[in-house]
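[step 3/7] fold_predict: job queued, chain A
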Amino acid sequence: MTNSTLSVVEDFFGRLGAGEADRALELLAEPLDWFTPGDTALIPWMGRRTTRGEVADFFEQAGENLTPEEFAVDRILAEDGIAVALGRFRYRVNATGKSFASQFAVELHVRDGLITRYRMHEDSYAISLAFL
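[step 4/7] structure written:
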């Protein structure tokens, strides 16, 4: 199970890193338990998602509003269908020109080769400040 979980998560981030969000969506189960915390009034793509279509909207809205400056997954730990990806990112908010950076930990659950749960842990306060 660990190798399968690890390979699915590596593949997911590899596809995202290659700019292939549509192919990354293929690795998501439906329904899905996806949550990225943040101020949904200020940043509407934050919050809960349960379908591939909703996650596609997340990527589309983020892509329209942010310019990536850095994104790196430094390590992925996997055991018994659960993985944690550790890394860092920096993005610029197009509307304000402000950049924000954070280290992150993403908790992912994998079953039958698909991601069933995605939880982003990041500095959502720093992100919100960049939108003001």
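[step 5/7] annotate
Strands lie at 28-36, 47-49, 66-79, 82-93, 99-111, 114-121.
The chain is about 30% helix and 45% strand.
exit 0
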